[in-house]
Amino acid sequence: MSGFPGSPRTTRGGLVMLSTGSGAIERVVVLQYNPDLVTRTLQPQAATGDPGDRLDALRLKGAPVETIKLDVEIDAADQLELPAQNPRAVRQGIGPELAALETTIFPRADVVQRNMSLAATGALEIAPVEAPLTLFVWSEHRIVPVRVTDLSISEEAFDPALNPVRARVGLGLRVLTANDLRLGHRGAGIYMAYHRSREQMAATVPGALTQLGIRRIP
Q1: The whole model's pTM is what?
Q2: With 35 labelled, which of 57, 64, 137, 143 sits at a CA distance of 20 to 30 A?
Q3: pLDDT tens digits for 135-155?
Q4: CA distance 42 to 39
Q5: Do residues 174 and 147 touch, judged by C-beta distance below 8 A?
């Protein structure tokens, strides 16, 4: 980052995990460096897959299925240059940062332990553990509920105690729409705010038929 005092402060992307019950913030994972590339794929949700169905040819049954992929770099080099100011990096390298990302796909240990205790007492059915609501935050205009679909970690360098000090993380996300979440779920409201922001931004783009070389639609 430039040391020029007039340089704008770069906003960082990251993940926010909200408690399933209360909606309180459990953890904020701030990306150390913003990736240069964020790939988004949107698959339309047509009402029918039959091209001959004339009644539903233009109907949509919901928002598109949106997936997001990004590669994240994590490096402790800067912290290790000032060990007195960064004792955690000295003791554990980037292990805590990797663990923060990994916990987005781990059930809470206390809930797993409770279910194990219930199973030991003969409980017949134990519901799967509900994970915290994870939000992908990429500026104030893009805050979406997501499910982490894949997480790959390549640890590239280690300190003498074998703590990782540099890694590349591949992160795959599936955006959860209002149709994916139960009625009244906080994530559904967050998604609808994102949906409306897309429409509002699209409305600011000017366009005219003459720019397409035509004057009217036949």
Answers
A1: 0.85
A2: 64
A3: 999 999 999 999 999 999 999
A4: 10
A5: yes
Q: Are 128 and 39 in contact (CB under 8 A)?
A: no
Phi, psi of 90 (to 5 degrees): -65, -40
Element (H, E) at 42: strand 38-46
Phi-psi region of 122 (alpha: psi -120 to 50; beta: other; left: phi over 0): left
* The two structure tokens encoding residue 197: 């922001």
Category of 211 on φ-ψ map: left (φ > 0), alpha (ψ -120 to 50) or beta: alpha
SS3 (DSSP) at 190? helix
Domain ranges in the chain?
Answer: 14-105+132-200
Task: Judge whether residue 93 has pLDDT over 60.
Answer: yes
